[in-house]
C-alpha cells in the first residue's frame, strides 16, 4: 500500500471508532433518562398511595389489618379499625366494664371539693327561694288589701265645700315646666298634664313577646293583648298600658277615696272626700298604687325564675361531674394512700 492509501484507511478506522463512542454516549444518556423517569413515577405512586390509604387497602387485601373487636378475626374496613359497628360497640363496652368500677372506687375514696361547693350553693339557693316565695305571698296579700282599701274609699261621701277646694285656687298663677315636653303649665293642672304627656310619649314605644304570659295563680299582671301587625303580645303592666287601655271617664259624683297618711308613711283611717274630678293632689292614685304592687310581684316572679335556672345549672354540673364520660376521661391520682383529703390547707 502506498502512503496515500494507508492514510485513507487509518482515517476510516478513526471515523468508525468515533461513531461508536458517540453511540455509546447516546445510549448511556437514554438509559439514565429512563431510570430517572422510572424513579419519578415510583415516587409519585408512593405519594399517592400514602395520601389515600383507603384506596391502597382496597386494592391490596394483604395490607388490611385485623379488626380490634373482641374475638373478631375479620379484616378492618377501609379507613376504620373495626370490621363493623358492633365490634366497636363491644370493645367500648368491655373497656367501660373494666375501667369504670375502679374509677368509682377512687371517686368514693377522695372527697370532691366541687361537690361540697355545689351542695352549699344549693342550700343558699333554697333559702333564697323560700324568702322569695314568702315575699311573693306577702305581695299577693297586699294586692287584695289594696283592692279592699279602694273599695272602701269609693264608698265615702263626697264633700263639695268651697273651703275644701279654695286651697287650689291660689296656685293657678304659679307655673312649672313639664318633664316630658318642656312646656310651662300651671301648678293646678301640672299632675294631669304630666301624666297625659307621659302617656302620649309612652305609646310610641312597644314592649312585646312572642308568647303570652302563663303564670299559675297570678292575676292582673301583663296586658297580653295580641298585636297582628308586630305579631307579638303586649308585655306592659295591665294597669299602666296606655296603648290598649284608656282611663274611664270620671263622673261628677265620684269621690277621690285616697287613704290619707301622717308623716308621709303612717296610714290613717281617713280618706280624701273631695270629688275625684277636682282633686289635684291624688290624681291617678289607684292606678299608681296598683302598678307599684304589680311591679313588686313581677320582680319576685323574675327572681324565682332566675333562682330556678341557677338550681338547674348546679344540679346539672353535679350530675355530669360523676357521670360516665367524666369518670372515664378524668382521674385523680392519690400518691399518699394515708391522706384521703387532697385539699391544700394554709397553715395557721
Structure characterization notes:
It is found in: Nucleus. This is CXXC-type zinc finger protein 1. GO terms for molecular function: DNA binding; zinc ion binding. The protein is mainly α and 348 residues long. It has a domain of 211 residues. Helix content is 53%, strand content 7%. A 3-stranded antiparallel sheet has the order 3-5-4, with no helix packed on it. It has a two-stranded antiparallel ribbon with strand order 1-2. It has a two-stranded antiparallel sheet with strand order 6-7. A hairpin with a 4-residue loop joins strand 4 and strand 5. The radius of gyration is 47 Å and the shape is elongated. The termini are far apart.
Observed structural traits:
three-stranded antiparallel β-sheet; 8 helices; nucleus; 7 strands; 53% helix; transcription; two-stranded antiparallel ribbon; mainly alpha; zinc; 348 residues
Summarize the structure.
By secondary structure, the protein is mainly alpha-helical.
Mean pLDDT figure: 78
How widely separated are the two ends?
126 Å
* Fraction of helical residues: 40-55%
Order of helices and strands: HHHHHEEHEEEEEHH
- State the major sheet: 3 strands, antiparallel
Strand order of the largest sheet: 3-5-4
Q: How much strand?
A: 5-15%
How would you sum up the global shape? elongated
How many helical elements? 8
Total beta strand runs:
7
Radius of gyration: 47 Å
Structural class: mainly alpha
Low-confidence runs of at least 5 consecutive residues: 50-59
Amino acid at each position: 500500500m502506498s502512503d496515500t492509501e494507508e492514510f485513507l484507511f487509518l482515517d476510516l478506522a478513526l471515523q468508525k471508532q468515533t461513531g461508536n463512542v458517540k453511540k455509546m454516549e447516546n445510549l448511556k444518556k437514554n438509559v439514565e433518562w429512563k431510570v430517572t423517569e422510572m424513579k419519578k413515577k415510583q415516587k409519585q405512586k408512593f405519594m399517592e398511595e400514602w395520601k389515600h390509604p383507603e384506596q391502597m387497602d382496597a386494592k391490596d387485601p394483604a395490607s388490611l389489618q385485623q379488626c380490634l373487636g373482641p374475638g373478631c378475626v375479620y379484616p378492618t374496613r377501609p379507613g376504620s379499625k373495626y370490621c363493623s359497628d358492633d365490634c366497636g360497640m363491644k370493645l367500648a363496652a368491655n373497656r367501660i366494664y373494666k375501667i369504670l368500677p375502679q374509677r368509682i372506687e377512687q371517686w368514693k375514696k377522695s372527697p370532691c371539693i366541687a361537690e361540697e361547693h355545689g351542695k352549699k350553693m344549693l342550700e343558699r339557693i333554697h333559702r333564697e327561694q323560700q324568702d322569695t316565695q314568702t315575699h311573693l305571698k306577702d305581695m299577693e296579700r297586699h294586692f287584695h288589701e289594696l283592692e279592699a282599701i279602694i273599695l272602701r274609699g269609693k264608698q265615702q261621701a263626697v264633700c263639695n265645700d268651697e273651703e275644701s277646694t279654695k286651697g287650689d285656687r291660689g296656685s293657678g298663677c304659679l307655673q312649672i315646666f313639664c318633664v316630658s315636653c318642656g312646656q310651662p303649665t300651671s301648678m293646678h293642672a301640672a299632675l294631669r298634664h304630666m301624666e297625659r304627656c307621659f302617656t302620649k310619649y309612652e305609646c310610641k314605644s312597644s314592649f312585646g313577646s312572642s308568647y303570652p304570659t302563663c303564670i299559675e295563680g297570678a292575676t292582673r299582671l301583663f296586658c297580653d293583648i295580641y298585636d297582628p301587625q308586630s305579631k307579638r303580645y303586649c308585655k306592659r303592666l295591665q294597669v299602666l298600658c296606655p296603648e290598649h287601655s284608656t282611663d274611664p271617664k270620671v263622673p261628677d259624683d265620684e269621690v277621690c277615696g285616697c287613704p290619707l297618711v301622717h308623716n308621709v308613711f303612717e296610714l290613717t283611717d281617713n280618706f280624701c272626700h273631695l270629688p275625684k274630678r277636682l282633686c289635684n293632689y291624688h290624681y291617678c292614685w289607684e292606678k299608681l298604687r296598683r302598678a307599684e304592687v304589680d311591679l313588686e310581684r313581677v320582680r319576685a316572679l323574675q327572681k324565682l325564675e332566675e333562682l330556678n335556672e341557677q338550681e338547674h345549672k348546679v344540679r346539672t354540673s353535679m350530675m355530669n361531674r360523676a357521670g360516665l364520660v367524666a369518670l372515664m376521661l378524668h382521674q385523680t391520682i392519690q400518691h399518699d394512700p394515708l391522706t384521703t383529703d387532697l385539699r391544700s390547707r394554709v397553715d395557721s
